[in-house]
Write a structure and sequence with these properties.
The complex is a heterodimer of chains A (241) and B (223). Helices cover 80% and strands 0% of the residues of chain A. Chain A starts with a helix and ends in a 9-residue tail after the last helix. Chain A is mainly α and 241 residues long. Chain B is mainly α and 223 residues long. Chain B has a single domain, classed as MetI-like fold, CATH 1.10.3720. Chain B contains eight helices and no strands. In chain B, helix 2 packs across helix 4. The radius of gyration of chain B is 21 Å and the shape is flat. The chains are: A mainly alpha (241), B mainly alpha (223). The interface between A and B is large, with 42 and 37 residues.
Chain lengths: 241, 223
Amino acid sequence: MDWQLMFESLPRFLAGAWLSLKLIGLSLVVGWALSLPVAFARVSRRRLLWMPAFAYIFCFRGTPLLVQLYLIYYGSGQFPWIHDSWLWPLLRQPFGCAVIAFALNTAAYQAEILRGGIMAVPVGEVEAARSLGMGTWLIMRRIVLPQALRLTLPAYGNEIILVVKSSSLASTITLLDITGVARSIVAESFAVYEAFLDAGAVYLILTFVITRVIGVTEKRLMRHLRREDQAAVPTLEPYGA
Amino acid sequence: MDLKGFGGQILVGAGLTLAVAALSLVFGLMIGGLGAAAKLSGRRTLRALADAYTTLVRGVPELLILLLLYFGGTVFLTWVAGEQVEVNGLGAGLFALSILCGAYTTEVLRAAVQGVPKGQIEAARALGMHRATIIRLVLLPQVWRLALPGLGNVWLVLLKDTSLISVVGLEELMRKSAIAAGATHQPFTFYAVAASVYLLFTIGSVLGISALERRARRGLARA
């Protein structure tokens, strides 16, 4: 182990982590925004709505992210008309392509998560809201969505971790994210263990912090339910914990 | 569609993709069985080891594990053998995917074993069954049923993760498509072909998994 090399490459890993975080954050936000209409379309009873949503979700979850990334990054160059379109400044550089690919991919997964949440909201609550005269959108906004988001928080946490991990694919299209930095250090000095173990540690720290943040958020969002739960579920300890 | 004569190559790559995924699943199941046994065992060191294994492997990108084993394997084996030894993409890929699959199956199998009601084990013991008999007749058939959905997911993830091995040069579906894309200057066409093949594999797997699940549930009363 070359400790000095590990220490000296820390600033590069920080820069890589910053790029990774930008990729992850942008993809998650854009993907979340995309997932809302897809999820609503997916739970709709109209064929014209649910079938395209189903196809979108199935295609993006059924193929490797690497293929999607290559299709967008390398594939978009095949068509001259794309070069003239407003999307080209985004598709020309790897960062834009990575964000597009990751966002489209996570949107499919998030839509499926949200669908599960929407379906889990008790029908009676929706009926009650309707009988109070609420419109479809108001019901969605005030009754269904807040509960769906709360119910699906653990699944969202998993999805964020998955996006963190898949962000490493950005290194395959020349981006210097955490994995990219490690690969370039290996290419320069062939310090394989130092570089990859460093990178692995950075990812572990990231996933650990995210897991903790999700855990705390979940507790906060569930706090109005906690007391009832404790009363309803008998504890194993004879006098309570 | 005109594949410019690359159709055969892509077919070969697709076959290799399936083979690598299937082999990794077999190795992964073995590792997963050991891992689950370790997690459920009474020994604290074994449990801690298995916990460390699954936490580390699941907390780090698949690509990084693959790269570490590919480059790291070469360095390690060269150091052991005292002469230059090259690890090829196939070896590193199989190893990496097996370790990955093992970590995920460990969790699936552990949950499945814990899903079998304790009373059944106690009942079997009360009937005088031996440990091995209980495992064979009571535990395993139910573990299979409970673990199938999870194992199906692991298989689907594994199938897609094989594409990562193209990064270290194994000529599976993805790499073959990249070669064809480079040679014909039609990247979109060939990556779209690769994507369709992966999609076909996924569809086939989903159908197969649901058939298996139906079969595993056959003795169960419908809720």
